[in-house]
Amino acid sequence: MAYWLFKSEPDVFSWDDLVAKGDAGEPWDGVRNYQARNNMRAMKVGDRGFFYHSNATRDVVGIVEVVAPAAQDPSTDDPRWECVTIKAVVPMATPFTLDRAKLEPALADMVLVNNSRLSVQPVSDAEWDFICAAGGVRG
Prior knowledge:
By secondary structure, the protein is an alpha+beta fold. The protein is built from five helices and six strands, in the order E-H-E-H-E-E-E-H-H-E-H.
């Protein structure tokens, strides 16, 4: 299993919005960055990810699961853009902030810390375990 991080502005699409979609989940559409798209192409059903609220709170607020592999992005007819479908799994007991991530030596190499603009990014096993433990959840 691989781990990922999905960023969303909570006033556009929030954790609560994803929870409301239930087990069917929601396509992670609208991504127009080749690196983020390629990350989604690499995902497999069953992979897990962090749901990250950008801008307003800048924190990991939940864990998601990939429920459908990369396919044509439904928000465009342009065949270059694909997206996976994700569903909410569990909220973080304690949201994990970007400010805290920047202070943790164990997360010094994390993409979020070094390239916070990338909307879909990989997370290492060690980073996953650290943030899950700090957030009070089992990933």
